[in-house]
Amino acid sequence: MKAAPTHAAAAEEFLKDSERSHWHDETLWHVRSKRDVSAQKIPEWEQLRTLASQIKDHVLSNLDNLLLQFEKKAQANGIEVLWAKDAEEHNEHVLRILEENQVRQLVKSKSILTEECGLNHFLEDKGYDVVDTDLGERIIQFNKQVPSHIVMPAIHLKKKEIGDIFHKHLGTEAGADDPKYLTEAARQHLRQKFIQAHAAITGVNFGIAETGGFVVCTNEGNADMGTHLADIHIACMGIEKLIPRAADLGVYLRLLARSATGQSITNYTSHFHRPRKGKKMYLILVDNGRTKQLGREDFRNSLKCIRCGACMNTCPIYRRSSGFSYNSTVPGPIGSILSPGMDLNKHSTLPFASTLCGSCSDVCPVKINIHEQLYKWRQVITKEGPPQTSKRWAMRFGGQVMSKPRLFDLMGKMARKSLSISPRGFVYNSFNAWGKHRELPEVPKETFKDWYRKNRNDDK
Amino acid sequence: MTSKESILAAIQANKPDLLPLPEQPEFPYDSNLTEQYRQSLSLNGGEAREAKSLKEVTNHLQEHFRNSQMIVSLSEKVAGNFDVNMADDPHELEHAEVAILEGEWGVAENAAIWLPEEKLHHRALPFIAQHLIVLLKKDRLLGNMHEVYARINVEGSGYGVFIAGPSKTADIEQSLVIGAHGPRSMTVFLLD
Ligand code: SF4
To answer: Could you give phi then psi for residue A286, rounded to 5 degrees?
Structure first.
C-alpha cells in the first residue's frame, strides 16, 4: 500500500492558516480544562479510572465467552446478531439488511466504526442516500470531508465556513453565521429526514454481556430520533465495546462525558434491549483487526478505549496539527497506536507525532499507557519500518553526541554561542524539524554544569 | 469456518490469561440531593423547580403553553390535550409541543432521569416533542449512577433512557445551542 503523506507534511498544511490553528489549539485546550474541573468534582475519580481499566482487563481476557453470552442474550431479546471479520463483511451485512427490507431512506447517527469501515461511501456507491444526523457530521458530509475529531467532528471548521456550506446546501442566508440560526436550519432539514427514514444506523458505546443489550450516548438525541421512528435499527459495534454487567455502566458513564467535554453525562443515554413491536433490530459485531491487536501484548491495552477524545484535546501535537494530519479514522494519540496496528506502512509516521509528554495517559479514563505504546511503536518502526526524514537523522546524531561527554560539552558551548548570534532563519529552517512553529528557549549564559560547579564551590 | 468461529478462534489464540472482574464499587454520596440536582440540571441546560403542589405545574403550562395544540401528558396528575392512545404510530406525534412524563429515578450528581419504555408510551415521545416536562418525586432522588443501577433492571424494559437535559449541540465553533433535534427545553418539577 502506498504510504500516506507523513504526519509532519500534513500538519504543515494546517499550520499555514495560523489564525485557525491558533483557535483550534485554544479551543481544545479549553475543553481539556473543562474536563479537569469536572473530574475534580469526583473524589473517587482515580478509583473509577482504575476500576474502568480493570473491568476492561477482564473483558479482554475473557472476550470470547462474554461475546457468546452477549449474543445468546441478545438473540433471546429478539435482536438479530451478525458477525463481521472485517470492514467489507460489515458493509455487506448492512447492504443485505437494507435490501431485504427494501429500505430506501436511511439516517445515521455518529459511529466511528462505520467511518473505519467506509460504510457511507460503500452505500453511496450502491445508490443510497446516507444522511448523517449528528450536526457536526452532517456539516462535514456536506463538505465532503471526514471527521477531524471523534467527539467534535467539525472542530476544524469556522462558523463562517459552516455558514457558507449551509447556504449552499440548505439555502440559509448568504453570509449568515450565527450558530443558533444555523443549528435551527439543520434541525428543520433533519427533522424531515427523521420522519421519512425507514432505517436508522447507530454505533454502540457499550454492549452489556449479561443482559444482551447495548447503550448509545448522544447530546443531540439524534440516535433516538432516528431509531424510534424507523422500522429498522442497525447497530454497529466493535467487539471490544463489551462490558460484563449493566452495573459497570455506573463506572463508565461517570467517566465518559466528563473526560470528553466536562459534562457530567451526555443528555441522552439510551439502553436498547428489544425492538419495538413489529420492528427489527440488528447488531453487527465487528473484528476488523481487533483480535490481532489483542494478540500484541504491548498494544493490547489500546482496545480499552471508550472513545472520549480526551487524549486528543490534551495533546500538544494534535491541538496544533488537527485531526486530518493523522490521516486515520481515529486521530490523535490513541489513533497513533491503533492505526499502525491496522496498517503499519501507511501509518508509520504517527507514533512520531508526539512529544511523549504523557499527558494523554494522564487524562485517559481507562488508563491506557498511550505514550508508552507510542514509544514502543517507534521501536518497532525504527527496526523494521521505512526510514523517516530529518527527525531520524537528528536523533541518530543526537545519540552520538549524548554518548560522548566531551563532545556534548563542546557542542553545548558552540550552541550557546551560535544560537545567541544566529539569525532566526538559520535556526528555523526547513532542515530543522524541531524548529518549526516552536520558539527555542532563551539560551542560558552558562551551563548547568558550570553553574553547579560554581555554586558548590561557594558552599564550601 | 464462519466469521463467528474465526473471530472466536482468534480471540482464544490471542487473549491473555484470565484477569479477575472487580467487584462493583459503592461510593456513598452525601450532598443535599435536591439542591445538587437543581445545579446539575442547570449545567446541562435544563431547569429544575421545587413544587409544593401540582398547581405550580399547571400554572407553568398556563404561562408558557396556553395556546399549544398538542400537549401529551402521560401523568395522571396533570392534564394534556391530546390522548396518546390516539397515536398508533410515533409519526403522529410529529407536532407534539409538550410531553409531560413521570420519571422513575433521578440522579443528583448529573441530573439524569431514568425513563423506562413503560413510562413513555412511544419511545419517540421525549425526543420528538418541542418541550419536555418531567415530574419527579423528591424521594426518588439518588446520589450517583451506582445507586441507580443497583435499583433498576435495564433488561426489564425493551428500551430505557437516562435524560439529563434538553437536546443540545456545540458542533459549530463549540457554541452551545439548545434544541438540536429534540426538546428545546427540559423542566423538571421536584414534588414532595
Ligand atoms: S485513549 Fe483514553 S483518552 Fe483517548 S479517546 Fe480512548 S479512552 Fe479517551
So the answer is: -115, 135
pLDDT tens readout for residues A135-144: 999 999 999 9
Nearest CA in chain B to A197: B91
Query: Which residue segment(s) compose the domain that A9 sits in?
Result: 1-41+303-386
Distance A363 CA to ligand 1 centre (A): 8
Strand partners, B159: A272
Closest CA to A152 of A260, A265, A80: A260
Under 8 Å CB-to-CB from B150, ≥6 apart: which residues?
Answer: A247, B24
Whether A211 and chain B come into contact, CB under 8 Å, resolves to yes
First CA to last CA distance, chain A: 65
For residue A306, the ligand 1 atom closest to its alpha carbon is 7
Q: In whole angstroms, what is the distance from residue B189 CA to residue B192 CA?
A: 10
Residues A261-304 have pLDDT tens digits of 999 999 999 999 999 999 999 999 999 999 999 999 999 999 99
In a domain, B6, yes or no: no
Considering A261, A288, A315, which residue would you say is the last residue of a domain? A288
Pairing of strands A280-286, B47-51: unpaired
ipTM (interface pTM): 0.98
In the block, which residue shows the cell 500500500? A1
**Record: contact A183-B172, CB cut-off 8 A:** yes
Task: Specify whether the CB–CB gap between A217 and A241 falls below 8 A.
Answer: no
Cell of A355: 512529544
Residues A143 and A225 in one domain: yes
**In angstroms, how far is CA A117 from the centroid of its own chain?**
15
Rounded to whole angstroms, the Cα distance separating A106 from A132 reads 9
For residues A63 and A294, is the Cβ–Cβ distance under 8 A? yes
The model carries a pTM of 0.89
* Burial label, A169 (beta-carbon count in 10 A; 0-12, 13-18, 19+): middle
Task: Dig out the grid coordinates for B168 from the structure.
Answer: 443540545
